[in-house]
Amino acid sequence: MGEKTGGPPRAGAGTGRPGSAGGDSRGPGAGRLLGWLFLLPALLVLGVLVAYPIGWTFVRSLFGARGWSDFSGLANYQDLFTDDDTFTALKNNLIWVLVVPALVTAIGLVFAVLTERVRFATAFKMIVFMPMAVSMLAAGITFRLVYDREPEKGAANAALVSVHDAFAEAAPYPGARPRPGSGLEPAGGGFATAAESPGGSVVMLPLVALADDKVPGRARPAAAPPAAPGQVTGVVWVDFGRGNTGRPGVIDPGERGLPGVKVEAVRGGRTVASATTAADGSFTLPERAAAAGPVQLRLAAANFEQAFRGYDWLGPNLITPAIIGAYVWMWAGFAMVLIAAGLAAIPRDALEAARVDGATEWQVFRRVTVPLLSPVLVVVLVTLVINVLKVFDLVYIISLGSSQKEANVLALQMYLASFGGGDNQGLGSAIGIVLFLLVLPAMLFNIRRFRRESK
């Protein structure tokens, strides 16, 4: 009889176990060693570009401005919290962290929801996301032009002035002032006569500092009205001829009256009557003005108020909000794209079920959409927190000049202290370490979240 076949295999024969005949002959640590060999180049790069600079920066922060011979311990960290410029940078960084991530995330959420309801969603996303393709340097230069103080140059003030002028009437003669020695004195933004005028008086009110192009086209040659019994009359005109000819306080040939000037009769600090000048600058107050005695004449402040010219966006009061506006313009598209991707992954059944149950669109958005989007919103929020803590170039470019101190942030102060004139690399290194410690919690939060999601 032949030998039996198909019996159980012999121990170690063809089982594929380590050490068996025909199996893997590598030891148990071979795979781990191979993994470390693959990681070694990345570890070397991280050590040279990340770990070493962090360690060196911390060591350098313990020394003063003179270098390694000037050991100062924690003095740089003490200066960091007592120096006015650094304290301003800390305060501004706090404003950035509290306002900007929440604002950009909210705008991105609104844009993402809107893109689901418009036909041109793709074009809208492209337009909103396009600023992300612009460098911070280019965006800073662009917004310096946008925020220019002059409405003729700055788009922001040009838009504000256009809207303002559409709803508010501008003063007819901004910047005009009385001829010296005319008896008119400043009073509440306007000008008033020093002497009182009884009924039957003709009052001459000459003005200067008014260019020809500011005089209305309907103005006629100035003419003083005749005296009227019981009434106060007068004339308001431009007391200045070409070539500075003519006599002060006297209407000379070629001098024009100023139409539309509001003239008030004041007695005891109270306005008792008013009149508006005609095309030749003449006016006649009602008889009741001088009925109770002489009155003081006042040219109302509304005649001379300077025209609205917008705001000084790059000044010390508005520089930080102005830079934040530029940052929001750049990063709103980033938030919109990420949130829109999360929105597309939401099961439509949940939204439709809420609508069937009678929920309004606002209730669906607040109680269904936002909770389901919360993981994506957290990702966007944390990413923006890390980003705004490191913001530098946008602040540096837009705030160039006298307002840079008010717009200062930690990253900019680190550069200024080390290389921008401060010449104190010890203090700059201390600021760098503090900035790293501020970013670290957000980084650890992200790592924990990634590990939780992987499990």
From TrEMBL:
Transmembrane segments: 33-54, 94-114, 126-147, 326-347, 368-389, 426-447
Subcellular location: Cell membrane
Protein topology in the membrane: Multi-pass membrane protein
GO BP annotations, alphabetical order: transmembrane transport
One GO CC term, this protein: plasma membrane
Matching CDD domains: TM_PBP2
Gly residues bias (residue ranges): 13-24
Extent of Low complexity compositional bias: 1-12
Region (Disordered): 1-24
Pfam families: BPD_transp_1 (PF00528)
PROSITE patterns: ABC_TM1
Family: Belongs to the binding-protein-dependent transport system permease family.
Name of protein: ABC transporter permease subunit
Species: Yinghuangia soli
